[in-house]
Amino acid sequence: MSYFQNTDFVKAKPQIYKLLQLAENQKDTSRIAEYFLWLANLYQFFNTPDSSFYYHNKALDICILKRDTTAMSICYSNLGTETFNRGFYGLSENYLKKAVHLDSITDNKDQLALNLSLLGLVYGIQYIDDNTNNYFKENAINCTYKSLSLKGNDLSHFYTYYALTQFAMWRKQNDSCDYYYQKFREVASQSIYETMSISLDMDYMIYYKQYRKALDYLISKKSVFEMSKISMRFYYEKLNYVYELLGDYRNAHQANAKQFRLQREISDDNTTRAIANAEAEKAAAVERVKREESEKHFAAEAKQLLTLIISLSVGLLLVSIMVILIFRMLKIKRKANIELLQKNKLLDERNSEIETQKNIITEQWKEVENVNKQLISSITYAERIQRAAVSSQADVNEIFPQNFVYYRPRNIVSGDYYRAVRCGRFSVMITADCTGHGIPGAFLSMLGISSLKEFMSKESDAENPGTVLDRMRNFIKTTLVSTSSNSIDDGMDMTICCFDFEDMELHYAIANQTMVMIRSGKITRLKGDKMPVGRYILEKEHFQTMKLTIEKDDVFYMFSDGIEDQFGGEIINNTGSKLMLRNLETFLLKISSEPIENQKQLLHEKKEKWRGNLPQVDDMTMVGIRV
Fold this sequence. Notes:
single chain; alpha+beta; Phosphatase 2c, domain 1; 6-stranded antiparallel beta sheet; globular; disordered N terminus
């Protein structure tokens, strides 16, 4: 398509639709996916984001069905670029992480270098917005240097040297800034992204305080930015910035007003709806399946599940309202501050208008605080429901006389859960770690607990825990499907231990978790399946049921990955290192001879000492059982 390659998208559009019709008649799915991507890029240029996201997702569906990981990576990369251009940096980060993961599997070094460089830019722009967050800063630097080490193509070098020049400016390292800027200029002439080249040229001049030169240069290049609204929004953002540096606040205000107008046109309600539609459909499907299953099998749990869903839905609605209010408040506050500075110097007679704007902002802050209180109240009520769903300490003590349960959600509600049941002659302990934490994880955990009441209820279930995991996986696959045939790639890691204390035998199955046994002063890591209970690219047909002869005084530890992944230790620049599984195993071996009721406190003290002042990064669950 010469029209498309020459960016003549108006003439290219009808030709692409003709090619798509031919490919659909021939049922050529590879060509159909390719033409969907062309249409997505075409609508991105036309600033029609709902159509752009629609065709990107259509292409992605075909690639997933064909198990074409290379094409899947391209789709995720394009979605990451599209959401980045429109200011949805969190979504952009998630899409590019998926692309990087797929590139690592296929060992596609050129594509991996490109996506790492893009991911570095996403972290970098988030660090600029929040320069106190070292998570963004460190990830931006790490991704960029990894991309550089792969020696990718000219496009990845273009993004990489762009980011490295910016990082050198952050650190005020003049030699590095000059070096990377020159490397950037060497590859910039081969790139089609002239607007980014102009942007870095301006930043370089500003870094050396050549403000007037930067302004003249930007104005001379205005025609380059006029190809799209996204480029023009970026142009006025730069123009506003350089005018502020020159002290020309009137022109800075005019440029800022044009920037916000274009931003509203770029990220309108259609854009938000296009991104949110898939998630809304998925949430509706999950709620419907839960309600139907509860009416048939779990009438007693229906009221609790319905209450939790309503509470969390209200919580999510309140979060959305709060974000909108904060966004509006910040825009009004920024505009008020600029006008206040101009009025103090030039227009003292307009002080009354400034006071009125100040009062509006104060009232909006009060609204935000009220919404936040309601949100916390709803989530706290959801925690009470989740606590009631997992096994109580009294239930665990009745089944396992010598035990401890360490359960620490990262947020108020948790994506981890545990359950102790008796099935005939078997005493069963189950631990699980759902995808995510907080509210999304809590949804999955309640779904898992409810399904276990059906799948793990008889002695025959406990004899074959691997079969229980198979049934759980099938249930999750069929449950987490939206009405638009888009599957939800969420699930859970899980360990099921079924103790037969009469025959001194353990039947167990492990799905992507870790369980260790300590016997006579030696620690053994019990093997299992390295795949989750849910959708997985390298999925096996069945989970294994393992058997083990147990002895008196054997100690078993089942745990999620939250403890071993906790950052702490020696803290440098507000960051630390992970505790790691090997260090956790060494600690468990050390305390295994202690009374089981003391081990929970020792574990808590170890975790707190390691964590120090750093935040908890994930939900934490560990169950210890002594035979």
